[in-house]
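Fold Annotation — chain and its backbone
Next Lines — sequence and tokenised fold

***
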Amino acid sequence: MGLPAARRATYQDVLAAPPHMVAEVMDGMLELHPRPAGPHASVASTLGEELGPPFKRGRGGPGGWIILDEPELHLGDDILVPDLGGWRRTRMPHVANVPYFELAPDWACEVLSRSTARLDRGGKLPVYAREKVGHVWLVDPLLRMVEVLRLEGEHYSVIGVHRDDAKVRLEPFDAIELDLAVLWADVVLGEEPR
């Protein structure tokens, strides 16, 4: 007699998760991790502040994007919460009054921490590739590094790794130069709390 099949996690499991945890479902498994720590939250917020004016509003850049903090994505049976998600307005012209998004973003950004790096790289990237998310950025606030991934066929290729105070143009937001030093300006290096 075999073991009973494991129950696949559902949206109800996400809704029942403790409010101080981020709940995601990948490959039928409920994944819980703490809310972002200081460096993680600071870098994600700053990146949104830097990209918002030129790409959301068209101030100093081309506009044409909707960029959201921590959008809940329902992609097939998977439920993901990237730190930032961006949709070209040609695909999502406005933000609907919905609790989650079923349309995959054109760009996702994951800010890495000790508690999320395994899921961000190993669990989320295959889902993003399956859903044809064109670009993913992996940002490490403690290493002060940004990896830029571009979807090529069914897999991502690393098209750039940038560090410290580099001034760079990063796909798909390469219409402007991004000063990476701004991202880390408020982060004090030291032991990560989680």
The two ends are 41 Å apart (CA to CA).
